[in-house]
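@channel sequence for tomorrow's demo:
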Amino acid sequence: MFQALHSGSLTPKGEDRLRNVLPSDENAQRAIFLSNEFAGDRGATLLDGQLYPRAGERMALLEHAFHGHQVEIFLALKNLGSFIPKLLMSLPEAERAAVIDNTDLSCLSWIGMIDDIRDLAPNVKITLWCNEDTPFIWGDIIRAIADLPDDTPINKEFDLLLSLLTDEGKQKAADLTQPDSNLTRGEVTDALALILTENAHPDKIEEELDLAGWNSDIVDAFSELYEQDIDRLETTTGVRFLRP
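structure tokens (generated this afternoon):
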């Protein structure tokens, strides 16, 4: 349906077909769809000097097709210092060169994508989080997506975090996250962050940015801009931001 939308060939019959993916059970309260291309496919991730410039159109299509239902989108954001080189290196060489030649990479921001969704699909609820925080808030993400109460227990809630640790770190984290722990949630998060710092598998948390000219100074500059984007999005109307 998204491809038909962008090619101008989407028909009312196509929208009907899209609506038919909703569950027919009258007792169903929520339908969850999973895709890494809701905001845009890989080839359209970076176009016209913007990240995911088609995200707003896509959410507007869903809002229209599912009228009468509340549409929500859940997105993890990532530091552009690592996201951009990974994206560029995944493109064919000619396409990568064209993007670099025609795009001011220093001006890229997540703000434009979110503003487009809010402008074109104003009734779509937006939930965001930093991908870097995912191991610490996996349970919160699942609860948010499933619309579960904040105190709902999630099976294997910290397995993602444990997968990044050495055996020693796994034992420390497992002891820390026992149901009978007397620590507050904030104390658990702080302790887990320290355990990850001291007991992480380097090959599981470090990324190689194999793009000519992309150095630590550029990553640091994007990191600062990323924090500014997050600070702004956390106070943006209509946006829920999940934090540890």
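heads up for whoever presents: Strands lie at 46-47, 50-51, 72-77, 125-130, 239-242.
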